[in-house]
Each structure stands twice: as C-alpha cells, then as structure tokens.
C-alpha cells in the first residue's frame, strides 16, 4: 500500500500494474443473471483496460475537474470502471439509486448540477436530459473544466444522505476521504485483518459510503478482490459466498437476522469467511449467529460525514457481544459525550479536526457550520461509555429512521403525506422491526373520518409511493385525533415515539408493509 497517492484512480492504477491477471472483481452467477452480464472473475488488467477506454473517451469530449457525472449503474462492475476513469480526469461522480422516484431524482440531479448521467438501457429515460448508456460515446462537455484544487482535496464523489430537515443533503467527499477510508481499513488490524488474497463480498449499494468507500477502497489499496452483489438474496447467500470464495463479509443488521431464519444445515460452516464488518446486528442474534456460522461480526460506527476521520470498530476482544457495543476509539479519534443528553461528538486528533471527514454539505454552509459547532462534529447519536472505555449505541437524537441500512428523514416523509387530500396532519416515527431494524410508522390526522380506514391508509401510502422510494413510505398507519405537540406547536418527537410504540400493537393500526416493494 502506498499512502502517497493523490487520487483514487492513481491508487488503482498502481495496484493494477502490480496485480496483473489476479482478480479485481468476481461476478457471482446470481448477480450475472440479474444484470445480464458474464459471471466470473474480472482481472486487474482487464479492469484497467476498461477504465482506460472510458477515460480516453471522456477526455476527448472535454470532461475534467469541476464536472459532476451521475452514475445510475446500480452495483454493476461498470460502476467501478466509470468511477475510476472519471476520477482519473478529475471529475466527481454522483451515484444515483435506481429506486429514486421522479421527484427525488429531479431534486438530486438539479441540486448536484450534474452535466451528464451514465446509466443502463433499463433506466435510459430517467436521470436527466444529458444521458448516455454505459459504453456509449459521451457528448462534448457543456462547459470548460474549472476546479483547480490539488488532487488529494478535490471532490471525488457527492453522496446524498437523509437529514432532519427534509431534503437529502449532498456530502462532498474528496479523494483524501476515500483514500483514508482504505488506509484505515488496511491498518486497523485485530480481528479485522486484511490478509493477502482477501475476497470481500458485499450486497450493500454503491450509493452508500460503506460499499463505495470502505469495502471498495480496502480492496483497491491491498490488491484484494471485490465481490459486489446486485443485492442481498438470503436464500442463495451461502451458495454465493462459497462460489466466490469470499473471506470477508460486509453486512447490515437485517442480514444476520434473515440468515438465522433458515433451518440449520450441516454446511453452515462450509465457507472461508474470516470476519464480518457491519453495524446494527440485533443484540439477541449476535452470539447465536457467530456460534452457528463460525465467524465474528465486528460491529462498527461511522457516518457518511465522518468517514475514516472518526470511525470506531469492535475489532478486539472483549467485544461485549449482544450489548450494542461498537468498540473503543483509536488514538486518532477524539470523542466527547454531551452530559445533557449523551450525544456523541467527534473530531480527528491532531492539528486538523476535519481530517478524513466530508468536505461540506453542498450549497448549505449553515448546515455545515451547525454540524461542526464548537469545533466538534455533532453526530446526533446517543451513546454511553463503559468503565473500560468501550462505546455502546443507545439511540438516535435526530429525526431519522434507520430501515435496512437506509436513513429516512421523518420530515421528508411527513411533507409528502400532507399532500394527500384526506390528510390534515401527519407525523412519522420509528418502530422496531425484527428484520429491518426499524420501520416507518405514521400517525395521521384525517380531515374527515374514513369510511374504510384500511382503504384510506392504502391510498395514502400508494400516493406517497409516487414521490418517495419504496423504503421511505409508512409500513404502519394509524389514524389519530391529534398529534403530541410542544408548547411552540411543533411535534413532540419523544412523545410521538412513545405513542407509536404503543399504537403499533393496537387493533386500529393498519399494516401497509405489503405495499413496500421495489
């Protein structure tokens, strides 16, 4: 590993020259079938060749620093080729989820000011006016390149994350952010040992930092192999793990729960996995999973904003399994717990407290300043610290619901629900879900009593699906006479959460989870 690289593309190019015909990616048969592409290994040499062809085409068309390119390529191998090619030219990429509804997509495209989007035939008419299919010839750049920042600090990607104020925030992430993520992973050690010939399997989306920053960069900087799945398939998971000869698993809390739901098999330990890296495993299932499948699940904490500037992982014993423990901060991370509410504040140790963190929230300097109030990044997560210095996740302070790894803004969902003509007022909160960590629960005040409450609830959710990704809409709806309010007539979030936990088991609560499909 060479820590002196200035860009992600340079790190990849250096490793590709050394690794040659060794596998850079492995495409399992299930993912190949889902995308209609060949299964099997893609060598570092082949990946470098594909990347070079794309880079040459975009360079000839005038693309360079200051241009943002949208990538709606899902978890396909071509995502990596375009990202690396464009990064080598100084362009930034904006990963776009294919699950976005038109209104959500229009906002991201407009807010990010992408000059072009690369997608597949299935999504050809979605992102914006300037679109090419993967493999197509890019049109001339609409304006000259303008970004003159040094390569290491230049924008590499713009990732959107849900916040507390409705619209997703665009996190500007530099080359330094990505390189530090890979460097941290490669050096953290303990049970999280990136051995020679590592093969890392992940079903997590490349629109999120876990897959794009941590797993991808770890393999790029160490010469490992990325096994990027189209998505999580619990029924074929272990077959895919064995087929790909994966040695590292990336997971979210929903995955261990679903895998434990299958009957035990003699082949449960017939794999090469050394450890799992993730977050949110149900404390009731943590020890059971490790005993049955024979490898540790290493719980970690980080945010898109914190990157490797403040990441914590339970990679050494004792891990306090089944307690929501996510480890002890390394010396490179400074932490502070606010005494009034237990909120975790973090920053990088040393002269630059922002080292390794996101650069800023795009076009939102006030939100950036608020997040960094007092020289500390305010995480919005409530944690406690044990006598031995280990940290334990307690709750989220922010109005964010965490469902199957997706952060959902309560305010964004509420604004869409209020558009329905039958809705006078609405507020949403998180309720526990055994498989998905949390589910979206909506308390709705109607303008007039519903003759058929179940039909009305379904109509409200179907209407919301026109503007929101499927995972954001309510999985439970309960019609109430009023919402809990503060003295200033704002929703009392604590009271709402208590109310939701009580109502979700009542006979008046309507289950709309069946409407939440991709």
How is this structure best described in words?
- By secondary structure, the protein is an alpha/beta fold.
- The protein folds into 2 domains: 8-384, ANL, N-terminal domain (Rossmann fold, 3-Layer(aba) Sandwich); 400-515, ANL, C-terminal domain (GMP Synthetase, Chain A, domain 3, 2-Layer Sandwich), CATH 3.30.300.
- Helices cover 28% and strands 25% of the residues.
- The protein has 14 helices and 26 strands.
- The protein has helices spanning 8-19, 29-35, 44-60, 77-88, 102-112, 175-187, 209-222, 237-244, 254-260, 286-293, 365-371, 410-417, 453-464, 493-503, and strands at 23-27, 40-43, 68-72, 92-95, 116-119, 131-133, 155-161, 169-174, 199-202, 225-228, 248-252, 275-279, 297-301, 312-313, 325-327, 333-337, 343-348, 360-361, 377-385, 391-396, 400-403, 406-409, 423-433, 437-446, 476-479, 510-511.
- It has a 6-stranded mixed beta sheet with strand order 10-9-11-12-13-14, with helices on both faces. The chain has a 5-stranded antiparallel beta sheet with strand order 15-20-19-17-16, with no helix packed on it.
- Strand 11, helix 9 and strand 12 (275-279) form a beta-alpha-beta unit.
- Helix 1 crosses helix 3, helix 1 (8-19) crosses helix 4 and helix 6 packs across helix 7 (209-222).
- The longest helix is centred in the first third of the chain and has 17 residues, at 44-60.
- The chain is globular and about 65 Å long.
- It starts with 7 loop residues before the first helix and ends in a 7-residue tail after the last strand.
- The model has no long low-confidence stretch (mean pLDDT 93).
């Amino acid at each position: 590993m060479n820590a002196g690289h200035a860009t992600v593309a340079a790190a990849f190019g250096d490793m590709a020259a050394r690794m040659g015909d060794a596998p850079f990616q492995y495409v399992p048969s299930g993912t190949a079938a889902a995308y209609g592409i060949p299964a099997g290994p893609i060598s570092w040499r082949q990946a470098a060749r594909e990347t070079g062809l794309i880079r040459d085409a975009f360079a000839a068309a005038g693309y360079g620093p200051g241009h943002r390119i949208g990538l709606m390529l899902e978890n396909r191998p071509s995502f990596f080729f375009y990202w690396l090619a464009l990064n080598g030219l100084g362009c930034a990429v904006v990963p776009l989820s294919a699950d976005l509804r038109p209104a959500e997509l229009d906002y991201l495209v407009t807010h990010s000011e992408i000059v072009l989007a690369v997608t597949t035939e299935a999504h050809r008419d979605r992102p914006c006016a300037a679109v090419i299919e993967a493999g197509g010839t890019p049109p001339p750049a609409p304006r000259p390149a303008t970004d003159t920042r040094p390569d290491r600090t230049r924008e590499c990607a713009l990732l959107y994350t849900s916040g507390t104020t409705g619209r997703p925030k665009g996190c500007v992430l530099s080359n330094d952010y990505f390189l530090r993520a890979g460097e941290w992973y490669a050096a953290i050690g303990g049970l999280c040992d990136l051995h020679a010939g590592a093969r890392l399997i992940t079903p997590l989306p490349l629109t999120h930092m876990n897959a794009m920053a941590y797993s991808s960069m770890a393999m790029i900087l160490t010469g490992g192999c990325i096994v990027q799945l189209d998505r999580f398939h619990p029924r074929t998971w272990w077959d895919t793990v064995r087929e790909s000869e994966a040695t590292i698993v990336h997971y979210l809390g929903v995955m261990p729960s679903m895998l434990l739901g299958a009957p035990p098999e003699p082949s449960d330990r017939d794999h090469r996995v050394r450890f799992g890296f993730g977050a949110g495993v149900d404390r009731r299932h943590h020890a059971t999973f490790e005993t049955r499948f024979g490898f540790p699940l290493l719980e970690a904490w980080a945010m898109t904003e914190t990157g490797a500037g403040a990441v914590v992982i339970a990679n050494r014993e004792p891990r306090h399994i089944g307690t929501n423990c996510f480890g002890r901060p390394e010396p490179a991370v400074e932490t502070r717990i606010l005494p009034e509410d237990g909120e975790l504040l973090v920053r990088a140790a040393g002269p630059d407290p922002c080292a390794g963190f996101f650069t800023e929230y795009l076009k939102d300097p006030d939100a950036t300043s608020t997040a960094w109030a007092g020289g500390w990044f305010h995480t919005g997560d409530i944690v406690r610290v044990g006598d031995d210095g280990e940290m334990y996740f307690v709750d989220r302070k922010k109005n964010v619901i965490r469902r199957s790894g997706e952060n959902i803004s309560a305010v964004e969902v509420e604004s869409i629900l209020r558009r329905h003509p039958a809705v006078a007022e609405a507020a949403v909160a998180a309720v526990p879900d055994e498989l998905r960590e949390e589910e979206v629960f909506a308390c709705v005040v109607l303008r007039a009593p519903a003759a058929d409450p179940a039909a009305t609830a379904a109509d409200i959710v179907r209407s919301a699906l026109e503007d929101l990704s499927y995972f954001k809409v309510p999985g439970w709806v309960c019609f109430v006479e009023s919402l809990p309010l503060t003295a200033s007539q704002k929703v009392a979030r604590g009271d709402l959460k208590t109310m939701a936990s009580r109502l979700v088991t009542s006979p008046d609560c309507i289950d709309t989870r069946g409407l939440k499909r991709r």
